[in-house]
Amino acid sequence: MSGLPKVELHLHLEGAAPPTFIRGLAKEKHLDISGIFDERGNYRYRDFRDFLKVYEAATSALRTPGDYQRLALAVLEESAASGVVYSETFVSPDFCGGRDLGAWREYLHAMQEAADQAERQMGITLRGIVTCIRHFGPEKARGTARCAAETAGDWIVGFGIAGDEKIGAPKDFRWAFDCAREAGLRLTAHAGEWGGPESVRAALQDLEVERIGHGVRAIEDPALVDELAERGTVLEVCPGSNVALGIYKDFREHPIDALDRRGVKVTISTDDPPFFHTTMVREYEELHRAFDWDEGQFRKIARQSLDAAFCDADTKAKIAKKLEA
Ligand SMILES: [Zn+2]
């Protein structure tokens, strides 16, 4: 499984920061964030609340475009080591320049430099999805959407929403999503992770997204499962993340297999891998163990993921060749 070429669609750039990288950065900046690591050097947290705090402390070390360039490179090294050949990552003008367009362009340029280098040296292709942060509210999301619209193109290919699912409603963010859509960006939204099936319905109806981040709790509503299958809505499923945060007890209890059997287009991603002690290889291994998924199944999912990718047709054709190899 580890050697299979993989496509990942749901990865938060800051959340994918290797702990060793963050420790090094903190040391350079004389920041004391030693409390967020355990004795083995991994991120340490007790529950979801605590996870958010640790996440925030870790990302406080990221302050300049140069930091993001190094971050992107460190993350892509990890992904490439797992056999990922194409990845889409969530990036946010909220963390990169505070929604100032000029500053955002500098961060973006730095991340693209890293992506170009990784493509040349490691054969992995990266694209960005701008995300607004739900708990920052609709007004800030407008600023984020404007940055996304101004920089939409070959590299920024999508727009989404992350953050606390329990705050606000998707319809509050309609302006931001309309702005991104008009700029030609493809759309996704986190839903159906902490929120139930109704949150998935709301994202589909109010934001007209074509992909859902997580979406797994759709399983609680059979009619919605049928609807997702009929519409061909793609779920960016992150099983290890859901298990680590206690939404499901273990991989066997995770609905990814049931959703797949009922015709929903599922994909596999790691979300914030070092926080959940996972990698794409580990996701594959756990799914193989839990559901006896074989190479054919993983290859089907990789193709499904590439079909759902937001990049242009030329890039897709290039990656498709790598999947066939
Ligand atoms: Zn996520």
From TrEMBL:
EC number: 3.5.4.4
The UniProt record lists the keyword tRNA-binding: no
Annotated CDD domains: ADA
InterPro entries (alphabetical): A_deaminase_dom, Ado/ade_deaminase, Metal_Hydrolase
Cofactor: Zn(2+)
Keyword Membrane: no
Source organism of this protein record: Tabrizicola soli
Family per record: Belongs to the metallo-dependent hydrolases superfamily. Adenosine and AMP deaminases family.
Database matches in Pfam families: A_deaminase
Example of a GO MF term: hydrolase activity
SUPFAM superfamilies, alphabetized: Metallo-dependent hydrolases (SSF51556)
Domain of life: Bacteria
Keywords: Hydrolase, Metal-binding, Zinc
Ranges for domain Adenosine deaminase: 5-323
Name of this chain's protein: Adenosine deaminase
